[in-house]
Design goal:
The complex is a heterotrimer of chains A (about 300), B (about 400) and C (about 90). Chain A has about 300 residues and is α/β, with parallel strands linked by helices. Chain A has twelve helices and ten strands. In chain A, helix 10 links the parallel strand 8 and strand 9 (about 270-275). Chain A starts with a strand and ends with a strand. Chain B is α/β, with parallel strands linked by helices. Chain B contains twelve helices and 16 strands. Chain B has helices at about 20-25, 65-80, 85-90, 100-110, 130-140, 155-170, 185-195, 225-230, 260-275, 290-305, 315-320, 325-340; strands at about 5-15, 15, 35, 50, 90-95, 145-150, 175-180, 215, 215-225, 240-245, 280-285, 310-315, 340-345, 365, 370-380, 385-390. Chain C has one domain (about 5-85): ACP-like (Non-ribosomal Peptide Synthetase Peptidyl Carrier Protein, Chain A, Orthogonal Bundle). The N and C termini of chain C lie close together (about 5 Å). The chains are: A alpha/beta (about 300), B alpha/beta (about 400), C mainly alpha (about 90). Chains A and B meet through helix 5, strand 4, helix 6 and helix 7 of A and helix 4, helix 5, strand 6, helix 6 and helix 7 of B.
Chain lengths: ~300, ~400, ~90
């Protein structure tokens, strides 16, 4: 990396906690499982009914968390702030709702208002990928000097259709959750210049693909991404403190991930934990992991790492 | 600084399989927009689109969009002559929107109507946009970073921009990038509901234009560190010299009326490539043929290049708006325009809109040796992407 | 159709198709303006107007001509009710 990447703000909307860095820290200090759905009325209250009316539910989540993160960083959105939003399942609800309008009433049943929501990204106007990857992409843009600040994170919602879809896919028993978590990433120098509070620094990132079935398990137990990220950060494995993985209660996949980590970290690295087990599997949990890792590194002076299969 | 060159091209288009068929169709100004056969269109004002002709290669167990993506990506990788080891380290960046929605609809529609599904539930396996990347990556052995990007109608272009960044930043030496989309009921019906579809084949930049036509297809390119390409003796088509990505942050479906966000994307691409506007000879426009897009894009072009400062044409007049594939299909047309020194035309254009202060290359391709060319793509939500290619 | 009946149907459309909170719709009068940016309006934008047109075509059996400038008819509930009442083919 050429320029340091600072985390200067967090915004989270979940069923149990909603707020900035202080709220997230308080939750992580005394965590309790959050798998429930977020009440619609709470989302409307966060945005006001004028704005909420035109946003699909998953977009309400993303917009509310994004605004909390910008406020938390005391940063104003503008031409020089980028946006990268990750999602695992996007807005299937709107897609089903749009199709149902037609199936019930033919062409007159189609809604022009809902259609744009069937494109995963539209309301947020950002690239769409899972939470951790969104942060990798944003950090890359800042490190290379292409962006000064980027709002990045993840969002997903609990969807009745999704349950049956995952079952049809033969996916395991992971516990889904819902929420949005966004981070503000800035070039470290520009964050210092404006006197921003720095929650942590992203020192290295890496990503790679292993062959696997969709929502399934792959055979390889070797992945070089942890080593690549450590190399990018010029950090040795022995200085690694906490590790946040992405295990989520899907036994097959969790087992595969642990085997990959055993190989990459050396067996016996004990401080592994997963926020997905805590707040459910969704793209927001990935972004929350980055915030948690920053907090853990700050407290221990060590390096934390985020991993997903 | 790392220069990024294009060393492989692959296309499946409404002109059929392969880059050759695509360029022949585009260069000859053939309009491939015809009555829709893939889905029901009763009761809709617009009933035409540019479909990929049969047979679409690949196993019928895969979604149509996955098959389009796989065929195009395979051609690009073969064209670039990438070996197994190079593939294993290569990044894959895919622009997607509809995913396997066509097959998911084929399951959901009849199920909802109480009948038997037209295709079995495994169709759901490929419903999400990231399915293309999984299929292409695993079938072709691409083991580097793998990302799926969704920025609506600019997804295909954004995939090239992000992949080029991965190469320029030294994350990888080789990246495979592109977009794919099959026609879907949701897309066709949605644009009908928005009243953005012309019942006749679309007429970009024409005074009488009445909206867009939908298309389908896929295009992939291989992007490579120029030094790496040179060392392995690969042929390079062109340099991807710069890209610009901006967001209007204005409205969910309408572009910002003054075209400021579009102009910023073009300026960013020029700045990144260190190219003056006058060095650009050709713009492959987003050119959807909606009332708003063409007027506002022309305004933005004028603010960047000056009236008449550049040749402008819309490939969508021939292959329709291919959604997530559009940005990458049009990037390939732009690259081939540089290579063949031929600017493809805008067809169905009889009387240019007086607000469009450019030569839009009506009906017939034009011989023109152009040094730099840009391809514009703009998506819902005001997501603007400009790619700038330089002739080698 | 009487403009008053039309207004009641429009209120329903605002709740079911445009997703307004019922209490906001019960507050509107014939003089409430529609377009965003006008003082005291319900704040509709271009996409809302497309949705509203679709719903009106469906409910009242009329066809909107895209080539015609409809903006004056969509200025307020009063102008819209008059426009619909004149053309409605289904009650």
């Amino acid at each position: 990396m050429t320029t340091g990447v600072a985390i200067t703000g967090v915004g989270a909307v979940t069923a149990r906690f909603t707020g900035g860095a202080a709220t997230v820290s308080a939750f992580l200090a005394e965590p309790s499982p959050v798998h429930d759905a977020i009440a619609d009325e709470r989302l409307v209250a966060l945005l006001g009914d004028g704005e909420a009316r035109r946003l699909s539910r998953v977009c309400q989540l993303a917009v509310a968390a994004g605004r909390l993160a910008l406020d938390d960083a005391e940063l104003r959105a503008g031409d020089d702030v980028g946006l990268v939003l990750g999602t695992e399942f996007g807005d299937l609800r709107s897609t089903v709702e749009f199709a149902d309008g037609y199936l019930a009433a033919g062409p007159p049943g189609l809604s022009a208002l809902i259609f744009p929501n069937t494109v995963m990204n539209t309301m947020a106007a950002a690239t769409t990928m899972a939470g951790e990857l969104a942060i990798v992409r944003a950090a890359g843009a800042i490190a290379s000097g292409r962006a000064r600040a980027v709002l990045a994170g993840g969002v997903d919602q609990i969807d009745p259709f999704l349950g049956s879809m995952l079952a049809d896919l033969g996916a395991g028993e992971e516990r889904r959750g819902e929420g949005a978590v966004m981070l503000v990433l800035e070039s470290a120098s520009s964050a210092r210049e404006r006197g921003a509070r720095i929650l942590g620094e992203i020192m290295g990132t890496a990503s790679g693909a292993l062959a696997a079935r969709p929502h399934g398990v792959g055979r390889s137990t070797q992945s070089s991404v942890v080593a690549e990220a450590l190399a990018a950060a010029s950090v040795e494995l022995r200085h690694l403190g906490a590790v946040y993985d992405s295990t989520s209660g899907d036994r097959g996949r969790d087992h595969w991930e642990q085997r990959l980590l055993d190989t990459a970290l050396g067996a016996g690295h004990e401080r592994r934990s997963s926020l997905r087990r805590l707040i459910g599997a969704h793209a927001g949990a990935g972004a929350l992991g980055v915030a948690a890792a920053a907090g853990a590194a700050r407290r221990s002076g060590q390096v934390a790492v985020i991993v997903g299969p | 600084m790392t220069r990024v060159v294009v060393t492989g091209l692959g296309v499946v288009s409404p002109f059929g399989l392969g880059v050759k068929a695509y360029w022949e169709g585009v260069r000859s100004g053939t309009c491939a927009i015809r009555p829709v056969t893939l889905i029901e269109t009763e009761g809709f004002r617009c009933r035409i689109a540019a479909e990929v002709p049969d047979p679409v290669p690949g196993s019928p167990r895969r979604s149509r969009a996955d098959r389009l993506a796989l065929a195009a990506a395979r051609e690009a990788i073969d064209d670039a002559g990438l070996g197994v080891a190079e593939r294993r380290r290569a990044a894959l960046v895919v622009g997607a929107v509809g995913g396997g929605m066509l097959e998911a609809e084929g399951w959901y529609w009849p199920a909802k109507r109480g009948g038997a599904p037209l295709c079995p539930t495994p169709a759901l396996r490929s419903i999400l946009p990231y399915s293309h990347a999984d299929v292409v990556g695993s079938r072709l052995g691409l083991g580097g970073p793998r990302e799926t990007l969704v920025t609506a109608c600019s997804s295909g272009a954004v995939s090239l921009a992000v992949a080029a960044d991965l190469v320029a930043d030294g994350v990888v030496r080789v990246a495979v990038a592109g977009g794919a989309d099959a026609l879907t009921r949701i897309c066709f019906m949605g644009f009908n509901a928005l009243r953005l579809l012309d019942p006749e084949p679309c007429r970009p930049f024409d005074r009488a234009r009445r909206g867009m036509s939908i298309g389908e297809g896929a295009a992939f390119v291989v992007l490579e560190d120029a030094a790496h390409a040179h060392a392995r003796g690969a042929r390079a088509y062109a340099e991807l010299a710069g890209s610009g990505m901006t967001t209007d942050a204005f409205h969910v479906t309408s572009p910002q009326p003054d075209g400021e966000g579009m102009a910023r994307a073009m300026m960013a691409a020029l700045a990144r490539a260190r190219v003056e506007p006058k060095a650009v000879g050709y713009v492959n426009a987003h050119g959807t043929a909606t009332l708003q897009n063409d007027r506002i894009e022309a305004r933005a072009l004028r603010s960047v290049f000056g009236a008449g400062g550049v040749l402008v044409s819309s490939t969508k007049s021939m292959i329709g708006h291919t959604m997530a594939a559009a940005g990458s299909l049009e990037a390939v047309a732009t690259i081939l325009a540089l290579v063949h020194e031929t600017v493809p035309p805008t067809v169905n254009l009889t009387t240019a809109d007086s607000e469009v202060a450019f030569d839009c290359v009506p009906s017939m391709a034009r011989e023109a040796a152009v040094d730099c060319a840009i391809s514009n793509s703009f998506g819902f939500g005001g997501q603007n992407v400009t790619l700038l290619f330089r002739r080698l | 159709m009487e403009p008053k009946e039309v207004l009641d149907d429009l209120r329903t459309i605002f709740v079911t198709r445009l997703r307004f909170e019922p209490h906001r719709v019960s507050d509107v009068t014939l003089d409430t303006p529609l377009p965003k940016g006008v003082d005291g309006s319900v704040g509709l934008d271009s996409l809302d107007f497309i949705e509203l047109s679709l719903a009106i075509e469906d409910r009242f059996g009329l066809v909107m001509d895209d080539a015609q400038d409809l903006a004056p008819h969509f200025a307020s509930f009063r102008t819209l009710c008059a426009f619909i009442a004149e053309r409605a083919t289904t009650a």
